[in-house]
Protein 1
Amino acid sequence: MKVDTLILGAGAAGMMAATQTGGATLIVDHAARPGEKIRISGGGRCNFTNYGVEAGCFLSENPHFAKSALSRYTQWDFIDLIDRHGIAWHEKTLGQLFCDGKATQIVDMLRTEMTQAGAEFWLSTEIGEVHHDGTHFVTTLTRDGRPRQVAAHNLILATGGLSIPKMGATGLAYRIARQFDHEIVPTRPALVPFTFTGAALEPLAALAGVAAPARVTTGGTSFDEALLFTHRGLSGPAVLQTSSYWAEGQPIRIDLDPEDRIRSALRHTRQTEGRKSLSAALAPHLPQRLIAARLPQASTTRIGDQSDQALSEILAQFRDWHLTPAGTEGYRTAEVTAGGIATDGLSSKSMESRTVPGLYAIGEAVDVTGWLGGYNFQWAWSSGWAAGRAI
Ligand code: FDA
């Protein structure tokens, strides 16, 4: 069987590419259903993009690489698309856009668009070795136990990263890219909770379930969002964001009062209600369990007895908390994979290989990793669109 374009991976990026390619297109996936990560994303409502998408919200060895695709297929273009399909949506927080209903509406929309574009779609399909015979990329695709050789002028690698192997993530795109002499930026789990061990874990695990707004910093990069204590360590949006910038052995700093509001509130309480306990004075600002854990004497100490110096030391317990994670929860729970197919080898305009004409790489498989908040889907839409349009 001969096609113009073979797309490996029917996730967000592959499906978007298939809506744009001209000519005969075949899109294949080993999963029984397409876009499984879209389906489970955003708690089932898919955080499909963000009002604030810009290149600065992405990590890559080349921070400029994502600019072209992101500016040619923007968040507004995707919003237009879902509006045309009558999918209702809303902004949740920080520019994050979610479906009002189920995330599967987005999968259905992409399927409809692919069908209209004439793309053929094979699920539950195993992909064999790939080689180039001088004119075509050739591989064997096995569906229902029946192997078929397929030859394609163009091959789009869209099998994503290594995150959540249980959902069918494999390193296939990296393997094929390597085979065609493309470099792979070392991969690591990103947007992932931190784990702690031994004595460092005990105080955190004791607070499991407690959440609070915080600024979490590592290596000069900070995020102000919610922090969550877990039985294994730390999670929550601020932590997930920080994890993408974290290197093993590096400390993180937690500031539970980044706007510096508590100090003046405590001073005011000291003046007006000096008999109050420290824990009562702190209670409007911080979770009670956290106060008790960080300042065991707080319930028996009067706010009126604290000097300015003492207040500073008390606040430091919450504002200058240094911890060194033992590691992360790994690909098992990581929302994305950082690193991947090196951008040096790809055209930022078309996602085509600079050295192997007809070979393209898109989506999470490429060394472009977005922040939490809809940025990774926007990269999948933009890079998929750019490759599809170029063909
Ligand atoms: P994606 O992983 O979507 O698709 C790859 C496809 O290739 C899959 O269908 C897979 O089955 C297939 N495949 C892999 N190996 C194969 C092989 N060997 N043979 C055949 N097929 C193969 N992002 C965001 O912006 N907003 C959000 O709300 C969320 N939420 C979220 C929640 C959870 C739990 C996760 C794990 C991730 C998110 N993300 C997210 C990230 C987002 O899902 C991710 O960045 C995109 O799905 C990447 O799109 P791709 O198409 O590149 O890969």
Protein 2
Amino acid sequence: MKRIAVLTSGGDAPGMNAAIRAVVRRALYDGVEVYGIDRGFQGLLEGRLKPMTLGSVGDIVHRGGTILQTARSEAFKTEAGQEAAVGVLREHAIGGLVVIGGDGSLRGAEALHRRGIAVVGIPASIDNDIAGTDESIGFDTAINTVAWAIDKIRDTATSHERTFVVEVMGRRSGHIALWAGLAVGAEAIIVPEVPFDLDAIARRLIQTKERGKRHSILIVAEGVMSGAALAKEIERRTGFETRASVLGHIQRGGTPSARDRLLAGRLGSRAVERLLAGQSGIMVGIRGEAIVDVPLADVFRGEKPLMASLIELARMLSI
Ligand code: F6P
């Protein structure tokens, strides 16, 4: 294989740049040319390909966002769009493609694989909802950002003796809420995967206040309900002054953590190695300390469950 290409797609995630850097540097190390595709699959359809050099990935390992830009493409979801994308890749003599992104982007990767393009996916999403890998790039930074923000909210919550409901991202999953909630010692963590009882939560908040606690923090994953709606329900049941805070896109930006950069470096390098070894239709991921290859078909077989031991821990510690 003489030439490969790399793109980022879907919602951006801190650490995507470190992954691009690793793909480019590993390919050049192995004597293979690399093209960068701007604006994800949409940019591919528009022929936005450019040669990448060591210089084009300099000074980016620590930057959030993605230097290749990203997009969600409706045109690429169609049969005609995917055929056109194959045409563009062949026209540019691209022998293999690395797709960095979340669930939707990896589905796009699989579509190209089925059409005969050699493709390897790298999981990157703050949501950590991609099956087959313990972690996706961006998740560690996102939960650190949530913890940082909630530590600040806690100061004002204590001063005013208020209850706060903090709404976090995660799409349909509760990974961000659960991990960050444990990290900040939230009084309640409400996620789509676990049934909850608002009356019981309200009773617990009242008992906590009676014990002398001056504030309470509840975390709700966006896939359950809005923070504002939950705050109203809690205020109605407890009579406590309750505020909602929606953290929003702050969770997607910022300097990637060392852990995310390292993961990105390992996955980026492995993706190139696998492509050059003739593999396709796989995602590279991490399980425990090991970097693994996962068939894309397995990635889409089911939802990624929350860690049962963390759910149990949250139940035991939020008394
Ligand atoms: O998948 C990442 C994510 O940030 C989700 O947590 C969130 O639901 C969604 O993207 C928001 O998408 P957009 O930036 O298009 O509003």
